[in-house]
Each structure stands twice: as C-alpha cells, then as structure tokens.
UniProtKB/TrEMBL annotation:
<dbReference type="InterPro" id="IPR036380">
    <property type="entry name" value="Isochorismatase-like_sf"/>
</dbReference>
<protein>
    <submittedName>
        <fullName>Cysteine hydrolase</fullName>
    </submittedName>
</protein>
<keyword id="KW-0378">Hydrolase</keyword>
<dbReference type="InterPro" id="IPR050272">
    <property type="entry name" value="Isochorismatase-like_hydrls"/>
</dbReference>
<dbReference type="Pfam" id="PF00857">
    <property type="entry name" value="Isochorismatase"/>
</dbReference>
<dbReference type="GO" id="GO:0016787">
    <property type="term" value="F:hydrolase activity"/>
</dbReference>
<feature type="domain" description="Isochorismatase-like">
    <location>
        <begin position="4"/>
        <end position="142"/>
    </location>
</feature>
<dbReference type="InterPro" id="IPR000868">
    <property type="entry name" value="Isochorismatase-like_dom"/>
</dbReference>
C-alpha cells in the first residue's frame, strides 16, 4: 500500500494573534518528524495550501498564504492548491495520488473542524485508507468549545466512524512511527 503524508493549511494566515491555535509548536514538531520519516522512505509529502485568490485572504504568494516558517518543507515535496475546505474539490490532489498509486493517506494540518475534517470525509468516500495523526492537527477555540475539546471530539468521531473500503484509524505520531 503506497502512502503519503498530507499537510493541510499550515499557513501563516491561520496562525495569527487573532487566530491562536492549540499546541501549534507540538503539532508542527510532529508534522516535521513524520515528514522526515516519509521522505526517508521515499513516500510523498503533500503540502496543501488554501488559495483564496480574489477573496482578499490567502491570495497566492501573499504573506498569509505562505506556510509557517517552522515547517521543514522541501522543494521536492508535492505542493497542491486548494479552493474549498475539502482539498479534493477542484484541486489536482486525486490525480497526483492516483498517478503515484497512493492508497493510504496520513492526514495532518489546520483546522481540525473545517479543512481537516472535510478532507478526511472526502478521502473516505474515495476509498482511501486514512490515518488521522491524532496529535498532528490543530484548531482554535470556538464559541461553545475549547480548541482541545474540538480536537478531542473529532479524534473520537474518527475513531468510531464506519469504515469504507479503505478504512480509518487515529494514531499518535509515536504509534505511527512504530508501524512504518
């Protein structure tokens, strides 16, 4: 089973004083650890950036569109623009994954309850096997829930979903490294 690491929307515009994220440094560290391991195994690291061209936010190549400086990204990583919460929507992601024979996605990024969630749901309906990196996604506080509660809730939801042909699991970075 060919594997790929997806890094969703870890962009400067999502990590501002007005939009603080839960455990950002830990999430970035875990993503960096996994990216290094995936590269060593010659598996793709797919960096996904929201392209809000025309919206005034996340305009391609603007400062808020840029990835966090603390992410250890490489020129050989695969870079994909996305245009909605679901990374598969009108992007070239599925084509890239199919050409590489990828059937197992390890999903990380921001925001748990928006782009990460909708991309996971979409990947499942496309019969990918999905491993959610339990400690590799983040979000901010919401009106009725803390960011930690949102993250805990979605990790629970994903662990209890009915599997599709591909299946889904939620594993910590440490447990993923043990199984690669």
């Amino acid at each position: 089973m060919n594997k790929a690491l997806l890094i969703i929307d870890m962009q400067k515009g999502s990590f501002t004083p007005k939009t603080p994220r839960f455990r950002t440094n830990e999430v970035v560290d875990n993503i960096n650890i996994l990216a290094m391991e995936f590269r060593s195994l010659h598996w793709p690291v797919v960096v996904i950036q929201h392209d809000g061209t025309g919206s005034g936010e996340f305009e391609k190549n603007a400062s808020d569109w840029q990835n966090l400086d603390t992410l250890n990204l490489k020129p050989d990583d695969v870079y994909i623009d996305k245009y909605a919460n679901d990374v598969f929507y009108r992007s070239r992601l599925q084509e890239v994954l199919q050409k590489s024979g990828i059937s197992h996605l390890f999903i990380t990024g921001c925001a748990t309850d928006f782009c990460v969630e909708s991309s996971i749901q979409s990947a499942l309906t496309k019969d990918f096997h999905v491993t959610v990196v339990e400690d590799g996604h983040t979000t901010g506080d919401r009106p009725h829930l803390s960011a930690k509660q949102v993250i805990d809730h979605y990790n629970w939801v994903w662990q209890h979903m009915l599997p599709t042909a591909g299946g889904i699991e939620v594993l910590s970075t440490k447990n993923i490294l043990r199984t690669l």
